[in-house]
């Protein structure tokens, strides 16, 4: 195996999902919903299959989906995009991220990342021969995830080319505020950096919070590549339909790498995703409300069990500090033992950190499940930790 991937073994999601299958435990580890997407979206995929849409789509994606993505960005963010040159459809957000990093980075370049982070970021940076420079997101006294502006400033060096930003954030559930985004944008402009944003949870901000797209800030469109996907929004994670949008030069750089990865994917799912993006506002509002309810239920249970819970502002996941229950603070071992002890699978947060000790004592639970599953997990956790 290439030395670039030293330390990147089997993903934690595969390990813990296998543990769930082996033990019959409730899987609150990997972030996939347990319900199908909207009927209109599913039917559109079936219609596309039955009508012969099963061959290679165009490299940048089917024209109708690119038009729908442009309409979505205009509808929700007021962004004007050229579907022909400023939008590319990808095999999920994961391929978009890989394409962006492989298409823009040279060996030795530095990328500022906020840790904890989705695990593919560091792997893709390493495959590009670049270097990840972490900035810590950590809960403050009120349990709200924040970063130190001075740490961010010091992370930007002479070799820094790019800032990788995820908002709403996985795994913390943080929604970056306008002030935080303005700070990041100001540094990107000052140092002439590109910002790649992963916004797959864009429609899942709770309690009235606003998701702000980085590219809408002054002077940021021309230096921001925005990535999202339909998997989380339309409960179709297995379809792997994502997209990247932004100025033509950044999109072209990422597309050039993308053509040598999957080239194209998901032909009959692309017209279905266009249907999803054009659904009424009521769909997006209902999606958010349903997840907020399961978030509240799970967070209440985790608090009652005795964890210190950092209530997420968005996304699919709630993070806890296990030290109030397990003084060792070994999240990895805690997650390995949790299925036998309480019939539930979770994810140790240390795998999301460039510096694992920063997250060793934290564990992530997913609440993107039906309420009866959350209730069953609640009963199992309460019983398992009754002592």
Q: Gyration radius, to the nearest Å?
A: 20 Å
Any idea what the CATH architecture of the largest domain is?
3-Layer(aba) Sandwich
Low-confidence stretches: none
Strand runs, count: 15
CATH fold topology of the largest domain? Aspartate Aminotransferase, domain 2
From the spread of the alpha carbons, the general shape counts as globular
> Strand order of the main beta sheet, please?
2-10-9-8-7-3-4
Q: Write down the domain tally.
A: 2
At the first level of CATH, the class of the largest domain is Alpha Beta
How does the major sheet shape up?
Answer: 7 strands, mixed
CATH-defined superfamily of the largest domain: Type I PLP-dependent aspartate aminotransferase-like (Major domain)
The count of helical stretches stands at: 12
What share of the residues does DSSP label as strand, in percent?
15-25%
**Structural class based on helices, strands and sheet pairing:** alpha/beta
Mean pLDDT across all amino acids: 96
Measured distance between first and last alpha carbons: 46 Å
Helix content: 25-40%
Order of helices and strands: HEHHEHEHEEEHEHEEEHHHEEHEEEH
Keywords:
Aspartate Aminotransferase, domain 1; single chain; Aspartate Aminotransferase, domain 2; 7-stranded mixed β-sheet; 2 domains; 4-stranded antiparallel β-sheet; 387 residues; 12 helices; alpha/beta
Topology:
Elements (H helix, E strand, L loop, with lengths): L11 H12 L2 E2 L11 H12 L12 H15 L9 E5 H13 L5 E6 L4 H8 L3 E6 L1 E2 L5 E2 L2 H7 L4 E7 L11 H13 L3 E5 L25 E6 L11 E5 L2 H11 L10 H9 L3 H25 L2 E3 L6 E5 L9 H12 L1 E2 L1 E2 L13 E5 L4 H14 L3
Helix pairs in contact: 1-11, 2-9, 3-9, 4-5, 4-8, 10-12
């Amino acid at each position: 195996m290439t030395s670039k991937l030293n330390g990147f073994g089997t993903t934690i999601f595969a390990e813990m999902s296998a543990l769930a299958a082996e033990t019959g435990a409730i899987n609150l580890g990997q972030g996939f919903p347990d319900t199908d997407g909207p009927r209109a979206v599913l039917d559109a995929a079936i219609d596309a299959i039955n009508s012969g849409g099963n061959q290679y789509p165009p490299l940048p994606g089917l024209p109708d989906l690119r038009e729908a993505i442009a309409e979505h960005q205009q509808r929700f963010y007021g962004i004007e995009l050229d579907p022909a040159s400023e939008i590319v459809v990808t095999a999920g957000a994961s391929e978009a991220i890989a394409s962006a990093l492989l298409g823009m980075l040279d060996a030795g370049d530095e990328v500022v990342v906020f840790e904890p982070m989705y695990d593919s970021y560091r792997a893709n940076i390493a495959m590009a021969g670049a270097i990840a420079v972490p900035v810590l997101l950590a809960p403050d006294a009120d349990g709200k995830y924040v970063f130190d502006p001075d740490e961010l400033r010091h992370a930007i060096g002479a070799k820094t080319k790019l800032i990788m930003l995820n908002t709403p954030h996985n795994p913390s559930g943080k929604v970056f505020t306008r002030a935080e985004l303005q700070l990041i944008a100001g540094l990107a402009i000052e140092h002439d950096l590109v910002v790649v944003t992963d916004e797959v949870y864009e429609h899942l901000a709770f309690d009235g919070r606003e998701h702000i797209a980085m590219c809408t800030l002054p002077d940021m469109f021309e230096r921001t590549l925005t990535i999202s996907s339909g998997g989380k929004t339309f409960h179709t994670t297995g379809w792997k339909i994502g997209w990247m949008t932004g100025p033509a030069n950044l999109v072209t750089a990422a597309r050039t790498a993308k053509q040598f990865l999957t080239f194209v994917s998901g032909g009959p799912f692309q017209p279905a995703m266009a249907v999803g993006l054009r659904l009424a506002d009521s769909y997006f509002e209902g999606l958010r409300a349903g997840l907020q309810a399961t978030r509240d239920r799970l967070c209440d249970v985790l608090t009652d069990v005795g964890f210190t819970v950092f209530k997420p502002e968005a996304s699919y996941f709630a993070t806890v500090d296990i030290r109030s229950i397990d003084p060792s603070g070994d999240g990895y071992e805690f997650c390995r033992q949790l299925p036998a002890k309480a019939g539930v699978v979770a994810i140790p947060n240390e795998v999301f950190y460039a510096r694992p000790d920063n997250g060793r004592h934290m564990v992530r639970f997913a609440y993107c499940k039906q309420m009866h599953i959350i209730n069953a997990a609640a009963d199992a956790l309460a019983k398992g930790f009754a002592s």
